[in-house]
């Protein structure tokens, strides 16, 4: 965790696993913004938070956030914890599987595999388990998207693109998802040069066919390239579903989405929403790629 300079003071980016933050952690962010900055907190389009206008005690701010459990397990890994999930992962009625366990495995690999710390801070992954509330348009270096074929759920994947516009290169069983991601990242680092900071840079010199052949040889994954997979297109979603009441797979519970004006909150606003989540929900908030907030597990 670090603070980068800006015209209005320092910016501290707070990366949230799966976009999830507890009420207590959100209150800690609000208090840190009041104490060490000008009280401005932004929701980002990567489903994270950032504190702006930081002046003075940088170490105090970072210490307060780390004490709240908002830092990385490995200090060298903070820049590469770039995995985007649906804000309704594990909750969405249309999900084909619960993405959270696989996401935790991928994040653990990013944090604890020292070589992955060489990846650019902009190198990003996405995991879509078939939820109806998901950002499909953001380009990612590696994207993963669930599809159902002959009653089997598979994990389709593509490189340097997004499931909204691109078709998969191949698919693997969901159980091999972590192995696939680790193999793809190692392959990128092995084949790339220092100036290849993004997957698109490598693909300008190495064909996807060569990448797939090398992946199949190295990974041990069951890499499938059936025509039904490579012709598959992720269905589009309705663009405004992140605002309002959203049904959950869990009976008698809903998620409630709220817009954040221009993606900016003040400390009082974040504290109030955190208290609302503690009182009316399960004590967590979820950030979304639309720079909004979601309160999950609200009883009805």
Automatic annotation (TrEMBL):
Among the Pfam families in the record, one is NIR_SIR
Q: Which SUPFAM superfamilies match?
A: Nitrite and sulphite reductase 4Fe-4S domain-like, Nitrite/Sulfite reductase N-terminal domain-like
Is tRNA processing given among the entry's keywords?
no
Q: What InterPro entries does this protein map onto?
A: Cbl_synth_CobG-like (IPR012798), NIR_SIR_4Fe-4S (IPR051329), NiRdtase/SiRdtase_haem-b_fer (IPR005117), Nit/Sulf_reduc_fer-like_dom_sf (IPR036136), NO2/SO3_Rdtase_4Fe4S_dom (IPR006067), NO2/SO3_Rdtase_4Fe4S_sf (IPR045854)
UniProt GO molecular function: 4 iron, 4 sulfur cluster binding; heme binding; metal ion binding; oxidoreductase activity
Which residue numbers delimit the Nitrite/Sulfite reductase ferredoxin-like domain?
A: 11-57, 246-299
Q: Which keywords annotate this record?
A: 4Fe-4S, Heme, Iron, Iron-sulfur, Metal-binding, Oxidoreductase
Outline the extent of the Nitrite/sulphite reductase 4Fe-4S domain: 78-221
Family matches, as NCBIfam families: CobG
State the name under which the record lists this protein.
Ferredoxin--nitrite reductase
Q: Which species is listed as the source?
A: Pseudomonas syringae pv. coryli
Source species taxonomy: Bacteria, Pseudomonadati, Pseudomonadota, Gammaproteobacteria, Pseudomonadales
């Amino acid at each position: 965790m670090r603070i980068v300079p800006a015209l209005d003071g320092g910016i501290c980016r707070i990366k949230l696993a799966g976009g999830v933050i507890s009420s207590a952690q959100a209150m800690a962010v609000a208090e840190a913004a009041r104490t060490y900055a000008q009280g401005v907190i932004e929701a980002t389009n990567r489903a994270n938070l950032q504190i702006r206008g930081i002046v003075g005690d940088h170490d105090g701010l970072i210490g307060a956030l780390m004490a709240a459990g908002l830092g990385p397990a490995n200090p060298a890994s903070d820049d590469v914890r770039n995995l985007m999930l649906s804000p309704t992962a594990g909750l969405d009625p249309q999900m084909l599987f619960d993405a959270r366990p696989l996401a935790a495995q991928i994040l653990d690999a990013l944090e604890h595999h020292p070589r992955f710390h060489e990846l650019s801070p902009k190198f990003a992954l996405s995991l879509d388990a078939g939820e109806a509330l998901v950002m499909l348009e953001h380009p990612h270096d590696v994207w993963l998207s669930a599809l159902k074929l002959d009653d089997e759920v598979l994990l389709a994947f593509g490189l340097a693109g997004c499931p909204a516009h691109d078709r998969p290169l191949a698919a693997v069983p969901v159980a091999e998802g972590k192995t696939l991601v680790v193999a793809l990242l190692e392959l990128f680092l092995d084949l790339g040069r220092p100036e290849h900071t993004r997957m698109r840079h490598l693909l300008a010199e190495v064909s996807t066919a060569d990448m797939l052949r090398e992946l199949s040889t190295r990974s041990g994954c069951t890499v499938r390239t059936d025509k039904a997979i490579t012709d598959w297109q992720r269905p589009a979603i309705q663009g405004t579903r992140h605002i309002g009441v959203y049904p959950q797979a869990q009976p008698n519970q809903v998620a409630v989405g709220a817009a954040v004006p221009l993606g900016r909150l003040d400390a009082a606003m974040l504290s109030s929403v955190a208290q609302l989540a503690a009182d009316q929900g399960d004590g967590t908030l979820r950030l979304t790629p639309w720079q909004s907030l979601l309160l999950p597990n609200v009883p009805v």
